[in-house]
Amino acid sequence: MTRPAALGDDLFVVPVFGKIYRSTNRGQEFSFALVDDQGALRGRLGGLHLREDSPFTRFDFTVVADPHRARAFHLNRYGLYAWSADGVLRARMSTAEKPFKPLVHFALLECTPAGELLLAHRKQHLLLRVQVPQDLDDLAVAVEDALKAYGRERTALKRQYAPVNWLWSDSTATVNHL
Questions:
Q1: Model pTM?
Q2: In terms of C-beta distances under 8 Å and separation of at least 24 residues, what long-range contacts does 38-47 make, across chains too?
Q3: pLDDT tens digits, residue range 159-177?
């Protein structure tokens, strides 16, 4: 079991998995369980394939939730997934598809109170905010647009700051001492 995510005042998503093996774990049993505030199992986030969508690669079981809109999200090596509070998979963006390939370089951090997904690039030390639309059927378009904008904005930042090994420094920034 890893860190749960609050899907509402009385509903949580809890990532659960079984025994870990030294070689490969891809294809092993896992579940994103829906658990109420009394600890009773209410269902699970459905629609994931044990092997093709396995979070065991990179051991990434991070699930974030938007309790105000009753949605859950998961990002792993194979795609970005979005569910409604009843556990129905509403969106799947495979990293095998060209527009979503850059997602493999990001880690899912959180869902903001405004309903945005916050992702961090694993090597470039930059954040990506994805505006999640009201209709999750439109999420793929929003993610594709955010990834395109990320590339343009990263290029502009590289020209401005000239990072070394993707470490961004700003010598004009002030540091306040308390």
A1: 0.86
A2: 42/11, 43/86, 43/87, 44/87, 45/13, 45/72, 45/74, 45/81, 45/83, 45/87, 45/89, 46/83, 46/87, 46/88, 46/89, 47/81, 47/83, 47/88, 47/89, 47/92
A3: 888 888 888 887 787 777 7
